Every structure is written in structure tokens, then in C-alpha cells.
Amino acid sequence: MKLAVICGSFNPAFARGELDLVGFVARASAMPGVTGVEFQDIHFPQTRPAYLRALSQAAADRGLAVVGIGIHNDFGRADEHLRQSELVKVKQWIEVAESLGAGHVRVFAGWPEGSARERWPAMIAALREAAGFAASAGVRLALENEAAFTPSATEHLGIVDEVGSPALGLLLDTGNYSAGWPSVLRAAPRAIHVHAKFWRVGPDGGEPGMDYPSLLAVLRQSGYRGYLTYEYEAADDPDALHRAYQYLRRVVAAA
Questions:
Q1: Interatomic CA distance for residues 8 and 28, integer angstroms
Q2: Does residue 74 belong to any structural domain of this protein?
Q3: What's the Rg (C-alpha) of the chain?
Q4: Distance between CA atoms of 114 and 208, rounded to whole angstroms?
Q5: Which CATH number characterizes residue 61's domain?
Q6: Cβ neighbours of residue 60 under 8 Å, at least 6 residues apart?
Q7: CB 96 within 8 A of CB 47
């Protein structure tokens, strides 16, 4: 199992202007064991070809794979035109991922305006169209769980199955199911990518309530060979960020 880090782990540094994506690549390369980086749309200052080439080269120069790009889309919009604009946005980022050689684009189902049942058919249709576009670009979509359309593994798995495209897979974020740990274990065997989320950091560096050794055992048993992306969203504390990563690295090494 390979380790990656997502730029959102350094959100405060980005917000203070201390870090940009090229600087993030350099910082990630200094983290022992990290072999991949994951970008997010909110940290791109531009997407012109020259910039994308420079960013891709920065990662290659440091021996890092561009694992994926996380985008913030919302297919729960009730207005058809607004929902269509979200679909256009996803397609544009698929093209960016294609240019960068990223393995996947992280997408959300969205946050339904009204009931999830009302918005469900249009959300499925949007994901199906996005998956078709991704397939034509040779890029895979990874559907991340959130608390709106996907509060548990039941809905998360249901969306992937209903869309029914090999270009759409399940991204498991360990910290995002409101249904908690049982859903994490249920979704893990179907994951094409995993975010190891840290909302809090215990004395040993672990995330209270999250049994990462057990999760990695499930992933290993299911034949998972992808990346485990470190995602730190706890308090802005460089020491805690470092301790949590070292904990995750130890767990992966033990597995």
C-alpha cells in the first residue's frame, strides 16, 4: 500500500499565503514514505497549459505521482441550469486531470436542495454523464462520501451501482460517514481510493475512534493496492500534523 498526501492537509498555510501547489509538492517530498500527491481545485491559481506542465514537472522531478485532483462539485442543486454548470465544471477538471496525468478526479454527489429522494434521479444522471466524459478522457471518477447524499455506505454503494459505469468508483473517506465506523468497514472492500482522515490527534498520533490497523487489514484482504492519502483536518498544529502522519506511516509499515 502506497502513501500519498493531499494539499488540504496544509489548508492554513495556503490561506496565509505561505504555500502554493509547487511548494506543497516540495513539502510532500520531504515526508518520509510519501510517493504521491493529491491536489484540490481550490488551490489552483490557474489551469493554463504552461502552469499545468510546470506543476506536473515539479512532481516528476521529486519522484511523486499525481494521484488525483479533488474538486468541489454539487449535483444536489434543484435548478437545472445550476446543476448543468456543476457538470461543466466537473468536465473541465477532468481535462485538467488528463493534462496532469492524474489517476482520478474526486467528485461528490452533492448536497440536495430539498429531500435527497427528490434530487436523487438528477444527481444520478449528472454523475452518469460525467462518468461517460471521464471514460472518453481515460480518467476515472472517484465518488467521495459526505453526509448529504451518502451518510452511510448503503447510499454510497447504491450510487456507484446505479450509475453503473466502470469509470466511476468509490472513494472512501474515513472521517465523512455520519453512520461512522460500520460504514467504513462495509465500504472498504469496494474502494478504489482511500482518504485516511484525521479530525483529532491522540497522544500516539492516532485518530480517536478510528481503528486504522483493522481498516488496513480489510483493505489488504480485499486486494487493495492503491494509495492511502493522508488528510489532516485537525487544529492548525504542525506537531500534531507530523505525529498523525508518523502514526499512519507506522500502521502502513506494520500492515
A1: 12
A2: yes
A3: 17
A4: 34
A5: 3.20.20.150
A6: none
A7: yes
Cell (9 digits) for 29:
517530498
Q: How many domains does the structure of the chain reveal? A: 1
Torsions phi, psi for 40 (to 5 deg)? -130, 145
pLDDT digits (tens, 9 = 90+) for 17-52: 999 999 999 999 999 999 999 999 999 999 999 999
In a domain? residue 5: no
The pTM score is: 0.97
- Is pLDDT at 147 greater than 90 in this prediction? no
Residue 13 lies in a domain: no
- DSSP letter for 75, please: T
Supply the range of the domain harboring residue 155: 23-235+244-254
Residue 54 lies in a domain: yes
Q: Which residues contact 67 (CB under 8 A, 6 or more apart)?
A: 4, 36, 37, 38, 102, 103, 104, 193, 227, 229
